[in-house]
């Protein structure tokens, strides 16, 4: 050893650079006896048979009755029973189609899709999507609790794995939608470890919606605007809130504005509601100028209109102080909607800095103090960045039409909206008026489509409900 060049050096094995690695433990492998595997299969089969009547009571009862009839009465009686049952279902379907669809067709569809779509593909889809959890070499998956079908979508109620959160699912909505062949996926949280995945089967908003009928009675807290994805009427609240509508050019901002104005026409006619319009483009709102109590189409006049609204609001608040807290629309104190088309023109793009400052101050005052005294702001915008409009948070209700970028979805609808399925940046350009709405106090975005109010509809509205001095001249022809 004294003659060695490595004398005095520490001898270390090349396979053990760290002393703790000299001892390695491996998991022992124990072969499971076949009797245990067989017992497990039998237990699972018994559990399935026990739970089957609770999961599919109608199907199990049908099979049980059919077997009993065949056993006691024979094939002929079974054929007669099935013929009578089929005729009864046919009469039910023809006489009460809605009840039949709700009680029979949709339940059968839910059972079919539970077995052949979701249960069949559940494990591979969730594993590939990254929603499978592993612990001690065992794999854990969220469990399907129930599948229900509506006219347009499947609702899959899921129990999450302990230790996971709904956020983990919300971040995988795109993978889930593609995995189960759905146009989109939205997540609703019911409670701890209890979420619902909603998969639309088709796009119910693919067809344009004509202008809705003018309502006989106006509810300023529920104005009919169009349709929701579930087929219900989309109703927008204006009284007591402010609404920001954001979308690129051609996304359908005009449909939102004109649908709201159309829904208020009886109130405009009787004087309990007024619309003050700011129209920098002079192309959108000028068609219905006769419907507006005040109208501005330049930067200076727009600022004057906004400051006049602030003065009116403050005068009204001074009269209400100590007397009332809630505004009730009357002819003396009408509900005022300040409609600002392309609000960025007066807050960011106008060349006069003083005009921009005054407009921003007026809008901030209206949106922060106007709700309780009957003043609402309905603003339309193309670019939702803070540099363009830093008052986004003062609008409780927001509407996101087609957007340019995915990041803009959360700018408009709030953090987490895109993860919950509000993919406004993926709206087809051929679907103007389609939007996602997030209302105050609700984190769940709703997909809607605003009705299209064409130029002829606007002309008819202005001719019938507008101020006589501003009504357009209609050539009735020569008899």
Briefly characterize the structure.
With 479 residues, the chain is of the alpha/beta class. The chain contains 13 helices and 16 strands.
Strand order of the largest sheet: 8-7-16-15-14-9-13-12-10-11
Residues in helix, %: 25-40%
Order of helices and strands: HHHHEEEEHHEEEEEHHEEHEHHEEHEEH
For the biggest sheet, the summary is:
10 strands, mixed
CATH uppermost class of the largest domain: Alpha Beta
Summarize model confidence as the mean pLDDT.
Answer: 85
- At the fold tier of CATH, the topology name of the largest domain is Rossmann fold
Unreliable stretches (pLDDT < 50, length at least 5) are 1-14, 471-479
Q: In total, how many beta strands?
A: 16
Return the structural class.
Answer: alpha/beta
Radius of gyration, CA atoms, in whole angstroms: 32 Å
Strand residue percentage: 15-25%
CATH architecture of the largest domain: 3-Layer(aba) Sandwich
Which oligomeric form is depicted? single chain
Identify the overall geometry. Answer: elongated
What is the count of distinct domains?
3
Number of helices: 13
Keywords: ATP-binding, Membrane, Nucleotide-binding, Transmembrane, Transmembrane helix
Organism: Spinactinospora alkalitolerans
InterPro entries: FtsK/SpoIIIE/SftA, FtsK_dom, P-loop_NTPase
GO molecular function, one term: ATP binding
């Amino acid at each position: 050893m004294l003659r060695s060049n490595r004398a005095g050096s520490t001898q270390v094995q090349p396979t053990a650079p760290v002393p703790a690695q000299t001892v390695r433990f491996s998991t022992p492998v124990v072969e499971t006896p076949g009797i245990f595997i067989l017992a497990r299969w039998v237990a699972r089969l018994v559990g399935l048979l026990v739970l089957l009547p609770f999961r599919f009571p109608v199907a199990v009862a049908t099979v049980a009755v059919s077997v009993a009839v065949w056993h006691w009465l024979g094939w002929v009686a079974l054929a007669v029973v099935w013929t009578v049952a089929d005729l009864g279902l046919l009469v039910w379907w023809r006489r009460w189609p809605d009840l039949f669809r709700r009680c029979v067709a949709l339940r059968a569809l839910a059972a079919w899709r539970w077995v052949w779509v979701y249960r069949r593909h559940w494990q591979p889809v969730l594993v590939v999507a990254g929603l499978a959890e592993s612990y001690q070499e065992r794999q854990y998956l969220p469990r399907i609790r129930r599948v229900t079908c509506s006219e347009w979508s499947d609702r899959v109620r899921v129990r999450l794995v302990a230790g996971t959160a709904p956020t983990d699912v919300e971040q995988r909505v795109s993978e889930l939608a593609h995995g189960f062949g759905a146009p989109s996926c939205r997540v609703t949280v019911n409670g701890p470890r209890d979420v619902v995945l909603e998969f639309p089967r088709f796009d119910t908003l693919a067809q344009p919606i004509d202008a809705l009928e003018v309502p006989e009675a106006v509810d300023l807290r529920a104005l009919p605007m169009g349709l929701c994805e579930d087929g219900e009427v989309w109703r927008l609240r204006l009284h007591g809130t402010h609404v920001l509508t954001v979308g690129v050019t051609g996304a359908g901002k005009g449909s939102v504005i004109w649908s709201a104005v159309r829904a208020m026409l009886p109130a405009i006619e009787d004087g309990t509601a007024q619309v003050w319009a700011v129209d920098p483009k002079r192309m959108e709102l000028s068609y219905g100028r006769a419907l507006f109590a005040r109208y501005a189409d330049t930067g200076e006049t727009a600022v004057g209109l906004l400051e006049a609204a602030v003065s009116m609001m403050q005068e009204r608040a001074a009269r209400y102080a100590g007397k009332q807290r809630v505004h009730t629309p009357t002819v003396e104190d009408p509900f005022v909607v300040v409609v600002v088309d392309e609000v960025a023109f007066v807050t960011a793009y106008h060349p006069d800095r003083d005009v921009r400052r005054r407009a921003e101050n007026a809008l901030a005052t209206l949106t922060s103090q106007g709700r309780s005294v009957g003043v609402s702001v309905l603003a339309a915008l193309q670019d939702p960045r803070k540099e363009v409009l830093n008052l986004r948070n003062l609008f409780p209700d927001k509407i996101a039409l087609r957007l340019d970028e995915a990041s803009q979805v959360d700018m408009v609808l709030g953090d987490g909206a895109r993860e919950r399925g509000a993919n406004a940046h993926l709206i087809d350009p051929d679907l103007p008026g389609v939007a996602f709405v997030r209302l105050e106090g609700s984190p769940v975005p709703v997909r809607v489509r605003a009705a299209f109010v064409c130029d002829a509809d606007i002309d008819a509205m202005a001719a019938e409900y507008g101020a006589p001095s501003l009504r357009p001249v209609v050539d009735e022809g020569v008899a």
